[in-house]
Amino acid sequence: MIRVFVLLFSIYLALSAREPKQINIANQGTINGMYITRFRTKRIAAYLGIPYAQPPIDFRRFAPPEINDLPQWDGVRNATLYAPDCMQSDPKREDIQNPLNKHDELFMKLLDSQLDEPRKKEYSEDCLYLNVYVPDDQYSKVEGYPVMVWFHGGDFVRGSPNLLNPFQLVLKQKVIFVSVAYRLNIFGFFSSLDSEAPGNFGLLDQVAALSWVQKNIDVFGGDPDNVCIFGHDAGAVSVGLHLVSSYSAGLFQKAIAMSGNVLSPATVNTARKEAITVDKVANAFGCFRRPTFQLLDCLRRVQYQALLDLGEPLAEWKPIVDNGLSNVSAAFISDLPSRLFKTDAYTPVPILTGYTNMEDALLLEKDDKGSGIDQKEFDRSREEIILSDITVDNSSCFTNQHHIQEAVAFFYKPIPPTDNQTILRKLLLDFYTDKVHGSTTYQLAKHLSGHAPVYLYRFDLKPFSDLANEGVPDWVGVPHNFDLIFTFGLPHLAKPEDLSKWDYRDKSISEIVMKMWTNFAWYSNPTNSGVIIEWDPFETEKPGYFIIDRQNFTMSTPETINYKAFEFWTDFYPKVVEIGTKCCKEPIDDSGTNSLVTGTVINSLFVLHVILVLVS
Question: Angle 269-196-149 (CA atoms, 0-180°, nearest 5)?
Answer without folding.
Answer: 60
